[in-house]
Amino acid sequence: MNEQKVLIIGAGLAGSEAATYLAKYGIKVILAECKAKAPNEAQKLKTAAELVCTNSLKSLNPDSGHGLLKYEMKALSSIVLEVGTETAVPAGDALAVDREKFSTEIHRRLASNPNIEFIDEEIVDPLQSGEKYGCDYIIVATGPLTKRSLENWIQENVSKDDFYFYDAIAPVVDADSLDFSKLYFKDRYKPVSEAEGDKADYLNAPMTKEEYESFVEELIKAEKVPPQNFEKLKYFEACLPVDTLAERGRETLRFSCMKPVGLETSDGEIPYAAIQLRKENLQGSAFNLVGFQTRLTYKEQVRIFKMIPGFENATFNHLGSVHRNSFLNAKKLLNFDLSCKEFPKLYFAGQITGVEGYTESASMGLYVATQILRKMGDREPLKWPIETGIGALINYIMTVPKPSPSSINFGLLPPVVLDKDQRRNKNRKRIKKELAAARARKVFDQFILDNPLS
Q: What distance in Å separates the CA atoms of residue 401 and residue 411, rounded to the nearest whole number?
């Protein structure tokens, strides 16, 4: 029996995955989480694996980047995918979950695992705490919302440089406060019918040109939350606040989160713009505004979002907010197995390594756990093929010239070569994704076969 122990700091997605994976193979894990006593500004729950920004774990389509990651995570017995499937709410081809049920169940499984010891403690010095608990390895999986005390330790002992971006959270509205006579159920591109309308997963708020222009004007003029400590507002480009998008051009929202294409109404009309709402739970008692991350003040959110058709008397379960995210310069500071160059027994996992997104964060927790398990067995760290989803993410954060958080996408994988007929096909973009995904699954399966990770 392996007597080595691992201290994992942070019970988010990456920490939960790493703890569960290691415990599965008999490794004793000390899982430190301080949110019950000292939550950060974005946390609402006291349980593990809280989904802060949205309740969506993105696409299930096997030929998408997120579908590819899910394929690999499933092969590694991902607790996030298993519990996510059990607590899923309707969301088209995406995996969206009931946040509270998802977090509660993961917390229950972690707390009841005989190989995992939960401690409610804010860790300030990982190395000192690792020594205190007799741990051979340490994983910092505190995510982008790392507490300032630990962040200061990382800056002083590891990074030396500032490492942060700003992120934003979308609001959630109470379903009972909406006027459904002005809204309609419709999944993008699917035909509208009474039968399909009942089955559709997304609720839509259509806007006329005049309503849209007035809405955008107010977004631009509205009071915003200023950055903390006079820091420059650096945003992750794939998750920009809706008000920032509006400031980039008055038509920008119509080509992003308010795109009306594929959302024609029952009479066949396509609205000038549309806002999509996704269920927060199976009961449909609350909806989140898809893509509506915002840095507006609370007062301005209530005022402006009530301009949306059907929202005239809306009440919000919680409003949007802006929070500071921390990311390391992995290329400079970490080895490819995500161990620290300065302190080899210290690992980093999750979004703090420079990936962006829930599945991306969770997959990094699994990746680090597999590497530590190899190290415990006196085996060398294992380089993952760049053709795989996890391998492509690792390659990205370890090679990108300037740190910039990235989610999974096919641009991170080596390009596929199309034959003459495929290049002429009008669906060549879809074909390229299908070929890249098929190649990735094949390479991953062979990689696992050749290199057992346990």
A: 16
Q: State the greatest distance between any 2 C-alpha atoms of the chain, in Å, as a whole number.
A: 69
pLDDT at residue 450, as a whole number: 95
Q: Which residues of the chain have pLDDT under 70?
A: 1, 40-42, 144, 161-168, 191-199, 227-239, 323-324, 402
Between CA 331 and CA 346 the distance in angstroms is: 16
Question: Can you tell me which residue has the tokens 């997605």?
Answer: 13
Tell the residue number behind the tokens 């000292």, with chain if given: 38
State pLDDT tens for residues 227-244: 655 455 565 555 678 998
Tell me how far CA of residue 352 lies from CA of 48, 147, 403, 428, in angstroms: 17, 12, 11, 35
Length of the chain: 454
CA 217 vs CA 251, 304, 403, 439: distances in Å? 11, 10, 34, 47
Query: Could you confirm whether domain 5-164+326-450 is CATH 3.50.50.60?
Result: yes
Q: Which of 38, 58, 447 is nearest to 239 (CA)?
A: 58
- Residue range(s) in the chain whose domain bears CATH number 2.40.30.260: 169-324
Within the chain, all domains assigned CATH 3.50.50.60 are found at 5-164+326-450
The model's pTM is 0.75
Predicted local confidence at residue 262, as pLDDT = 92
> What counts of helices (H) and strands (E) characterise the chain?
15, 16
| 242: amino acid identity, one letter | V
User: What's the CA gap between 431 and 423, in Å, rounded?
Assistant: 9
Would you state the pLDDT for residue 197? 46
Tell me the fold of 169-324.
Answer: Elongation Factor Tu (Ef-tu); domain 3 (2.40.30)
